[in-house]
Amino acid sequence: MHDSFGSRKTLVVDDDRFEIFRLDAVEGAERLPYSLKVLLENLLRNEDGRLVTRQQIEAVRDWDPAAHHGSEIQYTPARVLLQDFTGVPCVVDLVAMRDAMAALGGDPQKINPLIPSELVIDHSVIADVFGRADALQLNADFEFHRNRERYELLRWAQQAFDDFVVVPPDTGICHQVNLEYLARVVFTRTVGDVVQAYPDTLVGTDSHTPMINGLGVLGWGVGGIEAEAAMLGQPMSMLVPPVLGVRLTGALREGVTATDLVLTVAQMLREVGVVGNFVEFYGDGVANIPLANRATLGNMSPEYGATCAIFPIDDETLSYLRFTGRPESQVRLVEVYAKEQGLWHDPGREATYSRSVELDLGAVVPSIAGPRRPQDRIPLSKARRVVGGLLNDPHRSPLELVGLDDASDSSFPASDPIAVDHYGDNTEPKQWPTTYQDEPWPSDPVPVELHGETTEIDNGHVVIAAITSCTNTSNPTVMLGAGLLAKKAVEKGLRSKPWVKTSLAPGSRVVTDYFDEAGLTPYLNELGFNLVGYGCTTCIGNSGPLIPEVSRAIGVKDLSVSAVLSGNRNFEGRIHAETKMNFLASPPLVVAYALAGTMNIDLLSDSLGTGSDGEPVYLRDIWPSSEEIQENIRTSLRAEMFTQGYADVFSGDDNWKSLDVGVGDMFAWDDDSTYVRNPPYFDGMERHPEPLRDIRGARVLALLGDSVTTDHISPAGAIRRDSPAGTYLEQHGVDLADFNSYGSRRGNHEVMIRGTFANIRLRNQLVPGVEGGFTRHFPSDEQVSIFEASERYLSDDVPLVIIAGKEYGSGSSRDWAAKGTLLLGVRAVLAESFERIHRSNLIGMGVLPLQFLDGESASSLSLVGDETFSVSGLENVDELPHEVTVTVSDALGERTFTAVVRIDTPAEANYYKHGGILQYVLRQLLAD
């Protein structure tokens, strides 16, 4: 251990002594943003002169805010957080690494987590059953039936690996469990004969890991393969990032929710451009943001492209820790440590930032976002106009229909005429704002009989209304707001429309506890928002089947129907195969749209229906006031709910306890399993990597446009029977009812290869006018599935490339989007720009990310996808080049252009040279 700056000191908190590494030992540290101070402490504590050096500490100390990126450092998180969709393949990979280690003559016990690793099973429950009292139990039973093999693997891992714990199913969503229970804010760990105290930091295998930033904890999402390396004790290579400061002023107006705020911030920061940046909130307005709202803002940082979006520690942090039942000794440690280290928020002090923007909280208006991107914010007053316009022409931009010229309109945020001050005032009718001129609504109704009555399903009808996702269900303000709105609606005599599939899936059991305490559960149940499970459900695509009669009606005329959910993702094909439009909204608005049953309504001026007294009922009549909500929080939430709710969090129910768990250090693979298979990543691996080679004669597997998400590349939702993955499962004796989802099958590479680029809304320009996982095979020019084309190319030893536009790989931190790409035979991805996590994942799997020069694209270079591609400049080099030459050959001859190699750090270069990060780590452990 080195201590070049003499920072190692002792901190006394009451009767306890802790070793800390003082930031004020480094001259100039006080100017740094909060997040960089956390990085600086991390380097001081881990300085060893080899991986972490004095020069890295100086690089953070001397951080240049004007630089695009700073120097490379080696960051060591305190812990790793996993969810089961990404956690299962992590465990599969670690098990396979043990096998590979043994095969190469090494010690398999070296493949073992060296830092605390916490996995929460939250992504597997599907809302199959809804709107009935036993929905939770039935969905939980279905979940265990489908996922037993996966859960047996996780229970085995819990006993086979050190420092690895699993939160069983039906407990909560990983980010909410992290916020309410797992997070320490200040971490403690015995090192030698002393107890160290240091900032709680983490990386997580879910892109919404930054939710914990609201608590002052630095954490962000990484791919599963990066997380595995961190679990094995490998520091994470990163460049010191730019830091954008968001100065908050004012306060939210009456009737404006945290959801409205985060959708506003998502749009604003996408416009500003923060991909690869840290974001920090500061200023007088921070005090007006409750902790739950801060967590909501942190949660959706991937939606605006930031690595993290953090709030500093302050009195609100301490209040939340007490509120959620953390021990007083821990709260005291957080306070004393933060103040001693200069990590306590001072609203009068402004750190040095790369850039700063200001947001007046009073300018935020009620909003939704969609129909396919979270950053496409639509003021609620314009929702009907926008949806009608999209139904007339789905290719139009929602922002254009809102009234902006494009996504970079400088008038942000829109000063929308909206009478939010009238929310909650039900004493007399109010004059609400004039609506915008709507386009004619493209109506094409289909008759349907539901519950013995004939009704109609039409374009724009809401067929899913889901209160779901950690983003909002962790926030008592919006959740109690939804419950109170439901209560008022029922008392007025309103009911949800019969064609709407309604569901409630909170992120922890505490939510249902306070709903019960507040007496709101019966009203939610009356509107069909019965508890369906504790997990991600609809937000991850586990929305389950639509009402059968509704599904058939949609198919009759291929209707464009909608889902409304309180989630964070609404990408194409993610929520449900039959909902072409998906809108993000606050939980109270989800209830409102369930009552309306259609997007063809102006919620600010049209009635939701007729009450039991024969009078029209408006949203303003049932919208709860802030005072009502806060009073319910005061009377219905207690710290004991959290301490009791998490008292036996790792125990699980009888289903979990009854799982058959093998013993031993090596996992017994089952060749008949359709869930867990030994992956091929280490097949034929030698102790030393082969030299790099140029790519020659590659064909284009897919030619894609802008904003291709990891959901497009590797969907998480339902598996269709007529898909390559469905065919594989049927051939292996799996009934359609047990297909489960792509997310649940990530432990089986055979399913996942077949599911790569299988999103039903994928548009591959090689097959214009066709949606789904199809391509053209060359030179035969046949239209086939992407998987079949891959098999043909692999059999002919033809390498493949993907060509794409801007923001390639945005969305979830889905390592299978990179794993599947590799296993299809893709050697390189050439895009106009990459999202951070997916670019890193591609490198981690040995796939080369190449970027067009600024101003160039497939279109500008006249690339149509039937050419062959060669990439030169990789062979016989000690260091990877910054640029390579791409040679394109077609019937007209050859031409060349230059592409940028998006391998940004020396560590990433090492991963690529070794064929991937797992191979690199395995060879390092073998060498040790």
Features:
single chain, 928 residues, alpha/beta, Aconitase, domain 3, 7-stranded mixed β-barrel, 5-stranded parallel beta sheet, 32% helix, metal-binding, iron-sulfur, Aconitase_4Fe-4S_BS, Aconitate hydratase A, aconitate hydratase activity
Topology:
Layout: E1 8-13, E2 16-21, H1 34-46, H2 54-61, E3 72-75, E4 79-83, H3 84-103, E5 117-120, H4 135-160, E6 164-167, H5 174-182, E7 186-191, E8 194-199, E9 201-204, E10 218-221, H6 224-231, E11 236-239, E12 243-249, H7 258-272, E13 278-282, H8 291-299, H9 301-304, E14 308-310, H10 315-323, H11 328-340, E15 355-360, E16 367-369, E17 377-379, H12 383-392, H13 398-402, E18 446-450, E19 453-457, E20 462-467, H14 470-473, H15 476-492, E21 501-504, H16 509-518, H17 521-526, H18 548-557, E22 561-565, E23 579-584, H19 587-596, E24 607-610, E25 616-618, H20 619-622, H21 626-636, H22 639-645, H23 654-657, E26 695-703, H24 710-713, H25 724-731, H26 749-755, E27 774-777, E28 782-785, H27 786-795, E29 800-803, H28 815-823, E30 826-831, H29 836-844, E31 848-852, E32 868-872, E33 883-890, E34 893-901, H30 906-913, H31 917-927
Parallel strand pairs: 4-5, 4-9, 5-6, 9-10, 12-13, 12-15, 13-14, 20-21, 20-22, 22-23, 26-29, 29-30, 30-31
Antiparallel strand pairs: 1-2, 3-11, 7-8, 16-17, 18-19, 24-25, 26-32, 27-28, 31-34, 32-33, 33-34
